[in-house]
Amino acid sequence: MAAGGMPADSASVGEFGCNEHLSGSYKGVCFSLINDGSCNSACLNESSDNISGECNFLQCWCESICPPETVAAASAPTPA
């Protein structure tokens, strides 16, 4: 789990999240379980690169798609 608290399964099939940033449009305090839906909507409406949003540390964090080269490096086998 990354700094923003995004679970790995929050990404769509074929997309991997790696860039977490504060929402630029969400206003107010963000409480998990109470405001997660509105935070997610704010993030998705901000950019087509965003794949999810979640409240963490009373702030709305957005997660965006990793560039393809980052995904390839992350999924490459490690040498034994």
Q: How would the global form be characterised? A: elongated
Q: Which segments are poorly predicted (pLDDT under 50) over 5 or more consecutive residues?
A: 1-15
The CATH architecture of one domain is 2-Layer Sandwich
The residue fraction in helices comes out at 10-25%
User: If you average the pLDDT, what whole number results?
Assistant: 78
Distance between the termini: 25 Å
Largest sheet: 3 strands, antiparallel
Q: Give the total of beta strands.
A: 3
| Global Rg | 13 Å
**Major sheet: order of its strands?**
1-3-2
The SSE string, one letter per element, is EHEEH
Tell me about this structure:
With 80 residues, the protein is α+β, with helices and mostly antiparallel strands. The chain has a domain of 48 residues: 2-Layer Sandwich (Defensin A-like). The protein is built from 2 helices and 3 strands; from the N terminus they run βαββα. The protein has a 3-stranded antiparallel β-sheet with strand order 1-3-2. It is elongated and about 45 Å long. The two termini are 25 Å apart. The N terminus is likely disordered.
Task: Provide a compact summary of the structure.
This protein is α+β, with helices and mostly antiparallel strands. It has a domain at 20-67: Defensin A-like, CATH 3.30.30.
